[in-house]
Amino acid sequence: MTPIQVGLLGIGTVGTGTFKVLRRNQEEIRRRAGRGIEITMVADLDVARAREIVGSQATVVADARQVIANPAIDIVVELIGGYGIARTLVLEAIRAGKHVVTANKALLAVHGSEIFAAAREHGVMVAFEAAVAGGIPIIKALREGLTANRIEWIAGIINGTTNFILSEMRSKGLDFAAVLREAQRLGYAETDPTFDIEGIDAAHKATIMSAIAFGVPVQFDKAYVEGITALQAADIRYAEQLGYRIKLLGITKRREGGIELRVHPTLVPGTRLIANVEGAMNAVVVQGDAVGTTLYYGKGAGAEPTASAVVADLVDITRLHTADPDQRVPHLAFQPGELQDTPILPMAEVVTAYYLRLQVADKAGVLARITGILAECDISIDAVLQRESAEGEKQTDLIILTHDTVEGRMNTALAQMQGLPTVLAPIVRIRKEELS
After folding, report:
1. Residue 282 lies in a domain
2. Residue 272 forms part of a structural domain
3. Residue 360 CA to chain centroid, in angstroms?
4. Beta 75-78 vs 4-9: how paired, if at all?
5. In the beta sheet, which residues pair with residue 292?
6. Which of 23, 76, 122, 319 could make an S-S bridge to 93, C-beta 3.0–4.6 Å?
7. Is 247 a catalytic residue?
8. What percent of the chain is predicted at pLDDT more than 90?
9. Exposure of 91 by Cβ count < 10 A (0-12 exposed, 13-18 middle, 19+ buried)?
């Protein structure tokens, strides 16, 4: 059987990795897919550089639309990124009857519903394993491997840059700004790291996983997003003393009234496996009613780890290339007509526990007044820690861990506590998850 022909849009880090992995493992891939898979056309604005990478094995053009217009191309791989031209080209490829593979989590989190609807209309597949957690096959696990389960919740370290920064802050006792500079120097963080450190990248990925887990449309605009820029070394140190580590988690949970979808720094018990994921690695914990807790761990970025996921998608499409579209695995795991309009809960209705750090005057009665406010708001205390403040002898750091409560109640309590004259600085609030 003749090889299936692939057009590659963008041959940067992941594109180069994809080309090399396909070429290096072509015999293994052919045996698995049932026919060869060849990248025969590449579009990149830097034509000279692209030709250096592919040599004579593929035609190189500057215009991506030449790839889409080529009737010999069966699959288009979009590795451009972003919301703009990538969306236009993906939709044009679908309308031209091409299957699409993409690593573009931002595109799918924002425009996924439109793209999947177009793919169904034109009888083609859109595969996106590489869009979440790089080389970890979490999309396939959620969409196929765990299909017997009612998924209860997902919690994931799904951004390697922020995990590297938090790991370095914990191990070296450094503040955020110093570690960010080091991450940029080492290439873990971009020159403009906003998408990573503000939690946006993780929220894109959490949105996609939530849609697959719970059978709802992708709804990035309803996700709660909070990054790590305000974290201080003191909080990481105090968390450690209490038996916790701080991780930036993407969390989505099934609740009676809707679905929680949130990204924020989170205290996790140090005994949990995910709490011990260090450096730039990724990990995702999934709780299913039948299987229980499962953990997926590995490299979440990089040329060949991400290429591993891209090539796996190419193999899946090659196997199903001639199959009846109705017999293919649905994009979001559930049949299109079975997606539910379950609401994404506002953050004020989320239920979680909290870590609070208050810088207070070292006076009698301060602790009693603060715990009294929490009691009035029906918030139960789990633990209290008092430490001498770095700001001076007449101040102290008061650290409180609470049991689960509704965020709206905590907002009310925080406003009251912040108004006390004995509270001398903005209160630090970090959410806490036991993940049990």
Report:
1. yes
2. yes
3. 36
4. parallel
5. 288
6. 76
7. no
8. 92
9. middle
Residue 391 has pLDDT above 80, yes or no: no
Residues 264-275, buried b or exposed e (16+ Cβ, 10 A)? bbbbbbeebebb
* Alpha-carbon distances of 230 from 18, 171, 191, 198, 380, rounded to whole Å: 37, 18, 19, 10, 26
Domain ranges, residue 60: 4-135+303-338
Among candidate residues 112, 168, 166, the one with its CA nearest the CA of residue 332: 112
- CATH number where 108 lies: 3.40.50.720
CA atoms of 238 and 240, how far apart (whole Å): 5
Do 174 and 120 fall within a single domain? Answer: no
**343 domain residue, yes or no:** no
Furthest-apart CA atoms within the chain: distance in Å:
83
**Residues 315, 234 share a domain:** no
Rounded Cα distance between 250 and 35, Å, is 38
My answer on whether 127 and 150 are in the same domain is: no
CATH of the domain at 215: 3.30.360.10
For 395-415, the DSSP string reads EEEEEEEE--EEHHHHHHHHH
The pLDDT-based confidence of 186 (bands split at 50, 70, 90) is: confident
Which strands, in side-by-side order, build the sheet including 4-9?
59-61, 37-43, 4-9, 75-78, 99-102, 126-127
* Candidates 20, 140, 172, 205; catalytic one: 205
Instruction: Identify whether the C-beta of residue 317 lies closer than 8 Å to the C-beta of residue 75.
Output: yes
Closest C-alpha among 162, 152, 211, 227 to residue 190: 162
DSSP state at residue 426: P
CA distances from 167 to 175, 201, 266, 429 (A): 11, 18, 13, 20
Q: Are residues 383 and 282 in the same domain?
A: no
β-strand partners of 157 = 283
Angle between helices 233-241 and 160-172 (to 10 degrees): 70
Q: In this structure, are 103 and 20 located in the same domain?
A: yes
Q: Is 360 in the same domain as 321?
A: no
Amino acid at residue number 136 = I
The enclosing domain of 379 has a CATH number of 3.30.70.260
